[in-house]
Amino acid sequence: MPQGILQPGKIPDPIEHGTLWDTSIEVQDNGNLGKIPTVFVEEADSQQDEYRETERLLQRTPSFGKTVKFILPPITIEDNAPQEEEMQFFQAVEDVLGGRGYSFKHIFHSNHWIDITDDKLLRKKILRPGRGEDSRPLPGQQVTVYLMGILEDGNLVEKDPKLSFVLDEGDVIQALELGVRSMQLGEVAFLLTNGLYAFGLLGRDPDIPSDASLLYKVTLLEVRDKPSLVALTTADRITLGNQKRECGNFHFEREEFRSAMHSYSQALTILTPNTADPLSSEEEEEIREHRIKCLNNLAATQLKLHHYDDVINSCNAVLEMDTDNAKALYRKGKVMSDYPFTYN
Questions:
Q1: How far apart are CA 312 and CA 333, in angstroms?
Q2: Which of 101, 158, 174, 311 could pair with 4 in a Cys bridge, judged by C-beta atoms 3.0 to 4.6 Å apart?
Q3: pTM of structure
Q4: Both 216 and 86 in a single domain?
Q5: Do 168 and 303 fall into the same domain?
C-alpha cells in the first residue's frame, strides 16, 4: 500500500536488573527466622577445639564475618530520541501555522507558500534549501525521505525515517510523488495537500478520514538510480513484487484502474525469474503463486477497462500454471460469453 503508513512500534518499558545476593541462608527456628553465616557453622562439643582453631585462623582474614553482596547495575532502554523529534516537528508546525489551534484553510490561500499544482491544493514551504537545481530527482530514480505527517486536528498519522520509493511508479500518494519531485537533495519542506492528492474520499482506515487534508514535513535524504532487477535475490523479488501488487490493490479500491494496471504489470516484471539464477523447487512454487495472484488482479483491472483481449491473455497465463484456477476460468468465460465480438 502506498506510503506513508505509520506503523507505531511498541516501545518496551525500561528494564532494570538489580539483585541483592549474600552468603547467608535463612532457616526456621521455632517460628522465627534467623541468619546463620555459611562461613562459620558451630558443630558438636566434641569438635569445638578443632573449630576454635579454625575460627582463630579465619578471624585473622580481612573478610571474616562480612556479608558479600552483588549489586548488578541497572540496564535501562531509553527511547527519548523519537519523542524529541516529534516535539520538534510539532513546534515547527506551530511556528509555521501560527500557534495552537491552527487551521489549514488559510494556508491554501497564503502568499508565503509555493503552489505545486495550479489548483492550489498541493503547496510547499521550504524550511531549508537543498543543494541546487542539479540535485533534483528525475522520474525513475529512487529517493529516500524522512517523513512525518499530521491531520488538521493534530493527530500524527505518518512517520517514516527512511521511506524509499521510485518516482513515477505509483508507490506513494500523489502529494509525495509531486512534492518530492519538486525538491532538491537535502531540502527540508512542508507539503500541504488536499485529500484529492492524498487518500481521497475513501481515506485510510482507521486513521485518515475521508477527503482529509494532510501536512507533511519531508526531508530529501538520498537520490540514486533505480536498483537493477538482475541484482535482486529471489527473496527480494518476492518482497518487492508483493509491494507492487499491494500498490495495485490500493489503486483498484479507489477505482484508479490505469494506475492499478501499471502496478500489477510492474509486479509481474519483478516476479519473472532470472534464468541465470536457478531456483529451488520451493522458490519456483512461491514465485508461481505470487504470479498467479498478480495475473488474476491484472485480469480484473483489464476487465474494468474493457481491455478484453488482455483479459483473455492474462487468464490464459494463469491457466498455464493452474488449469483449474476458478477466477481465471470465470473471467475468461465471462468475456467469451458476454463480449464474443470484442476480442480477437
A1: 9
A2: 158
A3: 0.69
A4: yes
A5: no
Domain span at residue 197? 81-224
**Same domain as 286, residue 324:** yes
**Residue with grid cell 521510485, as numbered in its chain:** 166
Task: Convert the pLDDT of each residue in 9-23 to its tens digit.
Answer: 333 332 233 333 333
Q: Are residues 215 and 233 part of one domain?
A: no
CA distances to 78, 106, 327, 337 from 341, in Å: 68, 55, 22, 10
**Amino acid identity for residue 240 in this structure:** L
Residue 114's closest CA among 65, 202, 184, 66? 184
Among 203, 224, 245, give the residue marking a domain's end. 224
For residues 190 and 243, membership in a common domain is answered with no
| Number of domains the chain is built from | 2
Q: Last residue of some domain: 224, 247, 264?
A: 224
| Domain of residue 316, CATH code | 1.25.40.10
Residue with cell 502568499: 111
Q: What is the 3-state secondary structure (H, E, C) of the chain?
A: CCECCCCCCCCCCCCCCCCCCCCEEEEEECCEEEEEECCCCCCCHHHHHHHHHHHHHHHCCCCCCCCCCCCCCCCCCCCHHHHHHHHHHHHHHHHHHCCCCCCCHHHHHCCCCEECCCCCCEEEEEEECCCCHHHCCCCCCEEEEEEEEEECCCCEEEEEEEEEEECCCCCECHHHHHHHHCCCCCCEEEEEECHHHCCCCCCECCCECCCCCEEEEEEEEEEECCCCHHHCCHHHHHHHHHHHHHHHHHHHHCCCHHHHHHHHHHHHHHCCCCCCCCCCHHHHHHHHHHHHHHHHHHHHHHHHCCCHHHHHHHHHHHHHHCCCCHHHHHHHHHHHHHCCCCCC
